[in-house]
Specification:
Layout (H helix, E strand, L loop, with lengths): L7 H4 L1 H23 L9 H77 L4 E9 L7 E4 L12 E3 L4 E8 L4 E5 L6 E6 L5 E6 L7 E5 L11 E4 L11 E10 L6 E7 L8 E5 L13 H14 L1
Antiparallel strand pairs: 1-2, 1-12, 2-5, 3-4, 3-12, 4-5, 6-7, 6-9, 7-8, 8-11, 9-10, 10-11
Helix pairs in contact: 2-3
Length: about 300
């Protein structure tokens, strides 16, 4: 029928009044129970009957009330536990970050101690520096260090680690410098094969990332896989005796003439973090009767300075 509501309350208006009446009667009975619970020598028959009837109801009432109170306390405790769990999670995260930072400091100190120990064995002055920048497009060509002209770093100073030769300073500002790595195609280092004392030229090769090309400077040479190549000290940039790397592959020379080789540097450039700048390289050894190979090495390293 139009306009008629289907609400249960409207359909049964007496239901709500009945519930309220029963609740009032229950409260009245509970009140009577408390009234008759006082200490007296004897109860009247109606009071005695009322107490006998109301005691079970009161017991149920108090059990329900106790259960509700316990549930409220449980919810409050759970909320406290959730807050405490969140606090502990944040504390654990903070401690984990602090632990990672301390571990990084420990590893850095260990690397610096090794580097400084190697520094003490060198016969020329050096300055320790950290790598603070890399060019993502030239990851294995150049790096930036946190030392510059204010700390005595100048262009063409050699850079090394305890593992071996890194490269040379390409340019320097007041507090930073750019280092040209030996992997860069612009790099040319005069070397000597430790086993045979053969002079070679070590250059970066863009076609073989991570390796250097080794070119013998004489016709009479003997290269083998595994040969170690050191800096020759000729050319005036790199001091003598720094490890450049080991021969890993022999290949035909340019235009198929002769033999050249590829060298894997001793330094792991992908993990390089600290270096030593050689702030004063020793003078090259005197060689009154220089060979053509030595002259070529000097001229090549000299051209690389520019």
């Amino acid at each position: 029928m139009a306009g008629r509501s289907d609400s249960p309350v409207q359909q049964n208006p007496g239901g709500k009044r009945y519930g309220l009446m029963m609740a009032a009667i229950l409260l009245l009975l509970v009140a009577l129970l408390f009234v008759t619970s006082g200490e007296r020598e004897a109860l009247s028959p109606p009071e005695s009957a009322a107490r006998e009837m109301l005691t079970p109801l009161a017991r149920v009432f108090f059990q329900v009330a106790s259960g509700i109170s316990g549930a409220i306390r449980t919810v409050a405790n759970l909320q406290h536990l959730v807050r405490e769990n969140d606090r502990l999670y944040l504390e654990i995260s903070r401690l984990m970050a602090e632990n990672a930072r301390l571990e990084e400091y420990r590893l850095e100190n260990a690397r610096l101690r090794k580097l400084l120990g190697f520094q003490a064995t060198l016969e020329y002055p050096t300055s320790a520096a950290q790598i603070v920048g890399r060019d993502p497009s030239n990851w294995l060509d150049t790096v930036t260090i946190n030392k510059g002209t204010s700390q005595g770093v100048k262009k063409n100073m050699a850079v090394a680690t305890m593992e071996g030769l890194v490269g040379r300073v390409l340019s320097a500002s007041a507090h930073t410098a750019t280092v040209l790595l030996i992997l860069d195609p612009r790099s040319a280092v005069g070397g000597v094969v430790q086993r045979t004392r053969t002079f070679v030229l070590v250059e970066g090769d863009p076609g073989r990332p991570g390796l250097c090309r080794v070119k013998p400077l004489t016709q009479d040479f003997d290269l083998q896989v595994g040969d170690r190549v050191l800096s020759s000290g000729l050319g005036g940039i790199y001091p003598k005796g720094l490890v450049i790397g080991n021969i890993v592959e022999l290949v035909p020379g340019k235009y198929g003439v002769g033999t050249e080789a590829y060298l894997k540097p001793a330094v792991d450039f992908a993990r390089l973090e600290e270096v030593l700048v050689i702030t004063r390289a020793p003078e090259p050894p005197e060689a009154p009767d220089e060979t053509d190979a030595q002259n070529q090495m000097r001229s090549t390293e000299g051209a690389a300075r520019k």
